[in-house]
Task: structure prediction
Amino acid sequence: MARRYRDDIEDRYRDDVEAGPRPRVNVRRPLTADRLAANPLALLLGGLALLAVLGLVVYLALDRPGRANGQPGVADIADDPQEYYGQTVTVSGDVDEGLGPNAFSLEQRRLLSSRDVLVVVPHGLPVPEGRPAAQPLQSGDDLQVTGIVRPFVREDAARDMGLTLDAGTFRDWEGKPAIIASDVRMTK
Result:
């Protein structure tokens, strides 16, 4: 048995000698300025990755369009409604969904998500030329809305404003923040 083991080792050694030197194993060397200068593609890709991360950080930091004028954005109200209940706010956003002649959801798109808030207009929505009065706003319309933020309770809103608000249409909005609008303007 020992002889057979020794023969196997000698055979491997002979095979290695006849095959020539073994290929050099690639050992990672530390990244230095000389190595980076020798590979400009790596330097370029690293710089682009750094710029992308920096751009993302800046975008997320500035992704509160209403804050520039001291007013909250739609996302601020949707994320922390308690802070805004009872206050008059002016917000801008896109119509997400029309909910009849007196209501719609206003949306603020963000990088990875969107946030929306219900807007109820007691005196009726503005009707752009060529659109039906029953559904005057379309998804994507840019608006500026001024009004008071309060928790939405369909029965209270209908009674207080003298409106007919369909229970099925507004079911998902119960208890969520709503802006009772005093002014709605198309911005585009």
Summary: The radius of gyration is 32 Å. The beta strands are 88-98, 103-109, 114-120, 142-151, 177-186.
